[in-house]
Amino acid sequence: MHDLVIRDALLVDGLGRPPRHGSLAVANGRIAEVGDEVGAARAVVAARGLALAPGIIDTHTHYDAQVTWDPDLAASSSLGVTTAIIGNCGFTIAPCRPADRDLVMRNLTNVEGMSLEALRAGIRWNFESFPDYLRALEAAGLGINLAAFAGHSSIRTFVMGDEAPRRPARPAEIAAMRELLIEALRAGAVGFATSTSPAHNGELGLPMPSRLADEAEMFALTGALRAAGRGVFMLTKGGHTAIGFLEEIAAQNARPVVVAALLHNSTNPEAVFQDLDQIAAANARGRTLIGAVSCCPLTNEFTLQAPYPFEGLAAWRPALGETGAAFARVIADRAFRDAIRAELAQPAVFRLFNGEWDQVFVVEAARPDHRPLENRSIAEIARAARADPLDTLLDLALAEELATMFTATLLNADEGAVARLLQHPCSLVSLSDAGAHLTFFNDAGFGLHLLGRWVRERGVLSLEQAVRKLTSDAARVFGIPDRGRLAPGAAADLMLFDPATVGRGPKGRRFDLPAGASRLVTPAIGLHGVWVNGARVLDADGPIAPAPRAGKLLREFVA
């Protein structure tokens, strides 16, 4: 007898085949049967025609810290995710010496918008090495399946300490980093992740350590993948990092390269497609590269106390690391502002903010006399005042002691362009950033948004195409065996939803992180069930409590 049968479902198999009606049986955490008729079971769910698909595989998350205090990770499973990959961009917390813990947390606070108080109160530091970290996660139990990257910035900090964000590494340091990476890969890391993005700055505005790596370091560390015979190389690309350089890495190591974050910039509209076309040309030459794209507009809520959208601008550097009165003096300076205006006037291959002031809104004013400005764009406010929009934003923030809450749609605002990204054969739907930037945005529900906005409302993808992109495509790229498809023998990671209503709800804010820190949430719509390795973690009423910790730490991957 089976443990579970889901009857009368619209089966969307994750492999791109047309949906068909039928039933699915689960036994011992795996799919036992799929067909018109399946055997009896101890528990039966009547799907009544709802769609049953593999659970979403979220390949770009930052739960490295959060999972130590929140192993359930209901923030993702409640949105259909059954497998997540952590450690993206190389911003991990292992390996980490006790003496470096506070530095690592302060870096995460700046680069990933995490609350320092929440990190200090929440992280369980019961590890030092990367293998110790994996063992600690397994011992605590997991609510979803996790795979973990070995992270460049953490490895660099472990070897170089305070010098990691300040200078190139010496040959002996590179060799030590390589040994740590090989140790991590042998322990079960899914690969090696790094970043060259100028938007990625740590404490005091210093570059995140990986940004100081030269070509010799990059080739030596990515060569560890070839030496270990396993692993994916994941890189968040700065505009100066050429696809040709990444193709050379792929060629030398015969390992897949995932290139992030390929987002559409309306002021340089063809740049992202040129990157994808170069990736396609590399694939035609026998290399394995894929571009990570998002199906969501990149929208941030922010204050000038944490001005993440602007920190990638070269002209913003004088403000990096400054606080209080010193920061206020910098952003009030006319020469500083003129330098920003001059930079924004020049096209860029990639940057977060591109001077689209009509996409920046005042969400919440701190002073009552400024409340009439709420829900108006900076462009509109500036026109009414006959002022420059940059001056308008900075002067308003200064008048409110930097407490003004703004929102900005930074990238992926052009839906026609996003449709092209989603349809490109070399794109991987990804970039949720779940676990990071929790006060700025929350795209953990990217999969539900894909199914609602891009399948049902826009018709850009068919249901079977979208489910494949969220499941088996991701499993194939990362070598995750037995997941991402509805087939006998595969893991019973499942999602039951209504194609007619599925999507993500309006944003809200909760104060449930350690130390009372807040996070943005977007609830699921039309999601009726989620199972992780056959254990139900969500029903139509929401997450099941107490949550069954049926998730697995994934350590074995197929080449």
Key structural traits:
eight-stranded parallel beta sheet; 32% helix; 24 strands; alpha/beta; 559 residues
In short:
The chain is an alpha/beta fold.
How are the elements arranged and paired?
Blueprint: E1 2-11, E2 20-27, E3 30-35, E4 41-46, E5 51-54, E6 56-58, H1 66-69, H2 74-77, E7 81-86, H3 101-111, H4 116-122, H5 130-140, E8 145-151, H6 152-160, H7 171-187, E9 191-195, H8 215-228, E10 232-236, H9 243-253, E11 257-262, H10 271-284, E12 289-293, E13 298-302, H11 324-332, H12 334-344, E14 360-364, H13 378-385, H14 389-399, E15 405-411, H15 415-423, E16 427-429, H16 446-457, H17 463-470, H18 472-478, E17 494-497, E18 503-504, E19 508-510, E20 519-521, E21 524-525, E22 527-532, E23 535-539, E24 542-543
Parallel strand pairs: 1-4, 1-5, 6-7, 7-8, 8-9, 9-10, 10-11, 11-12, 12-16
Antiparallel strand pairs: 1-2, 2-3, 5-17, 13-15, 14-15, 17-22, 18-21, 19-20, 22-23, 23-24
Helix pairs in contact: 6-7, 7-8, 13-14, 16-17
Describe this structure in words.
With 559 residues, this protein is α/β, with parallel strands linked by helices. The protein folds into three domains: 2-54 and 525-543, Urease, subunit C, domain 1, CATH 2.30.40.10; 56-299 and 412-477, TIM Barrel; 301-409, no CATH class. The strands form five sheets. Strands 1, 2, 3, 4, 5, 17, 22, 23 and 24 form a nine-stranded mixed sheet that branches. Strands 6-7-8-9-10-11-12-16 form an eight-stranded parallel sheet, sandwiched between helices. A three-stranded antiparallel sheet has the order 13-15-14, with no helix packed on it. It starts with a strand and ends in a 16-residue tail after the last strand. The model has no long low-confidence stretch (mean pLDDT 96).
